[in-house]
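Protocol step 4 of 5: obtain the predicted structure for the target chain.
Materials: sequence only (see below). No template structures provided, no constraints applied. The aim of this step is simply to have a reference model before the mutagenesis design in step 5. Sequence pasted as it appears in the construct record:
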Amino acid sequence: MIIRITARADGHHIGGAFISIGVFGGDVGVGIITPATFLELPYVLGQDPFTIAIDATYNSQFGGDLNLVTQRADLAAVERDFELIANGSDKSVSASYCNQQGNCATATDGSVDGARHQYALTWDGNEIGVFFDDTLSTTAFTGTGPDIDGEVVRFGNPVTVGTASGLRGTIFGIRVFNDALSE
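Step 4 output (structure tokens):
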């Protein structure tokens, strides 16, 4: 594990991360209270295997696709390195990872139902995976290697503050591993 985010008394910086609102740890969570709210980690992931795990309760009332976590080239970038999203059409959860040509592989599992769940995105160098509680679904990734342009990992709203594409809810914990987990 490369970081585990836990609450600090000042409510502003958590394990090197900036949060836009709240503190969390245990049964106290960070509120992603609007689709524009975000938690930002000053890390770049994706060249090597990794896993990002989120313990959270997300609002199940949403229409379009909304972000749980993403890494993009900059705050205004549409192109992404990777993302974990809730799909508006069926409330499923999908993990995507993109290569140098902009081609992406996606794995989908689970659903956002308003209950507390464990969500995770994992990349092992060959496959992208999504965990939903204890279930892992993977998709093989073919083609050239990763095209990592991102500067930060964002939980919630991935782009400029004027947009609103983050899934609302409460995050109780985040763990980032420098390995692809399979269970």
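Step 4 remarks: Residues 60 and 114 are 5 Å apart (CA to CA). The first strand starts at residue 3 and ends at 5.
Proceed to step 5.
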